[in-house]
Amino acid sequence: MQAALKLAPMSAAEVLRQRIEARTARVGVVGLGYVGLPLALEFAKAGFSVTGIDLQEEKVARLNWGESYIQDVSSSLLVEMIDADRFSATSDFSVIADLDTINIAVPTPLRKTKDPDMSYVVSACQRVAEFMGPGKLVILESTTYPGTTDELVLPMLEQSGLQVGEDFFLCFSPERIDPGNPKYHTRNIPKVVGGITPTCTELGRLFYSQALEHVVPVSSTSVAEMVKLLENTFRMINIGLVNELAMMCDRMGINIWEVIDAAATKPFGFMPFYPGPGLGGHCIPIDPFYLSWKSKQAGIEARFIELAGYINGQMPHFVVDKVQNALNDRGKPVKGSHVHLLGVAYKRDIDDVRESPALDMMVLLDRKGARVTYSDPFVPTLRLGDRDLHSDAVSLCAKADCVLIATDHSAFDYAEILNGSQLIVDARNALRDQASTKIVRL
Ligand SMILES: NC(=O)c1ccc[n+]([C@@H]2O[C@H](COP(=O)([O-])OP(=O)(O)OC[C@H]3O[C@@H](n4cnc5c(N)ncnc54)[C@H](O)[C@@H]3O)[C@@H](O)[C@H]2O)c1
Exposed, middle or buried: residue 177 (CB in 10 Å: 0-12, 13-18, 19+)? Predict the structure, then answer.
């Protein structure tokens, strides 16, 4: 008689690999905001069963109802995925016990001192650790300082007694989405991923390549963390440079926009960046300070970041001074004047007002005694200090002493606005094709 063939049990990595490839792995995304929700739906579209987890019960209820609150995710896609049993949302973290992969995309803001606020990441990872089990792939996507995954997240997950690279797998993968970008979105932006061990990296690569077009594996979690900080720091510093040049050009009576356009005709070695009223959003004004914080701990002062942060922080003041001077030149003190802002979102054609320089300018103008109103098709209401403001009709420009173009949404009819307004301070070069003595450019 032949002895029965005894098969060695499959490793946790092999089981997970097979599930990912067969798209039977149960996918979880913790944090259903600008990053997490599009990611969750991308995996649902690829055929996975996806569970979204968020602390905010109101968001969970809206999603399960089929209502998207993220501009780049359509409610019709959400309904389609819910109906196909490929997406559901919950506030109950115990579902993690049954998941194979968990992506974490929770906020990473700054404290008032400009130090990283890791409380959201810590709290999300604690909940994941509570329901940790063998065979899971955990990927942190929140932008953070280099070392976070290794030094902060790994010890929390290892409390389970499981061994990374053998029993469970841990990666960092920076999210690069650009909300409102019609060309690049979650699926077609190359995805960088680095794991704690080579097996972690390989499983991370395999996982993303099921739903996204191009995956870029790197050798460690720290490299992956640093990639995101390089990208955002590069942007922040170049915007800082061009903002400083804008202030220089203003003093010298040179049109900075024309200078940039002409410089951009150089086919190599130059990349155009544009000045504006300041930085906004949850990334560029914040992420570089995660790097400078970590760098300080390593004994290196991040001088470029601090300098660019200072210059960019001056821009709302610079623009408000322009408004004040333009009004003065027309014999109107800013105190008591009516200033109407066009656009309050931090950039064109999106609804996000986080860190928006328009809000700083509104506060500064208010402090100077101006009456401040705004129009923004994406932001119907706005909380400014202890006041609730409502978006007014664009026709209010005609009644304002000064119109301030803070965000150049494409829905505005600039020719008509110019026609009906007495004075326009254009902080975005939205009126580049118009010539009029009514226009004051940045
Ligand atoms: N918004 C962007 O354009 C963008 C782009 C690239 C990277 N990022 C980074 O991605 C991360 C997330 O940013 P976002 O813009 O999606 O934030 P967001 O505020 O839109 O969404 C975060 C979500 O996480 C939820 N949340 C907070 N703590 C939680 C917890 N402990 N458990 C479960 N859910 C929790 C919140 O309720 C919220 O719904 C940040 O680190 C950010 O820097 C953002």
Answer: middle
**53 CB under 6 A from ligand 1?**
yes
What is the rounded CA–CA span in Å between residue 122 and residue 227? 22
Using alpha carbons, select from 198, 94, 108, 215 the residue that is nearest to residue 152: 108
Ligand 1 atom closest to residue 59's alpha carbon, by position in its atom list: 39
Residue 18 to residue 26: CA distance in whole angstroms: 12
| Distance, CA of 164 to CA of 209 (rounded, Å) | 22
Q: What is the pTM for the complete model shown? A: 0.92
User: What is the pLDDT confidence band of residue 114, given thresholds at 50, 70 and 90?
Assistant: confident
Between β-strands 387-390 and 381-384, what pairing exists: parallel, antiparallel or unpaired? Answer: antiparallel
Q: Say which residue the tokens 């968001």 belong to.
A: 59
CA 143/CA 174 separation, integer angstroms:
6
Q: Which atom number of ligand 1 is nearest to the Cα of residue 286? A: 43
| C-beta 124 within 6 A of ligand 1 | yes
Phi (first) and psi of residue 147, to 5 degrees: 110, -15
Catalytic residue among 125, 249, 283, 397: 283
Q: Whose C-alpha lies nearest to ligand 1, atom 32?
A: 124
Dmax over CA atoms of the chain, in Å, equals 108
Q: Are strands 101-104 and 87-90 parallel, antiparallel or unpaired?
A: unpaired
C-alpha dihedral sign at 309, 311, 315, 321: positive
What is the structure's pLDDT at 3?
A: 57
- Cβ of 30 closer than 6 Å to ligand 1, yes or no, is yes
Determine the average pLDDT of the residues in 427-436.
95
Whether residue 249 lies in the annotated active site: no
Give me the chain's average pLDDT, please.
Answer: 96
At residue 342, φ and ψ (nearest 5 deg) are -100, 115
Contacts of 140 (CB under 8 A, 6+ apart): 104, 121, 125, 148, 149, 153, 170, 171, 172, 173, 221
365 lines ligand 1 (CB under 6 A): no
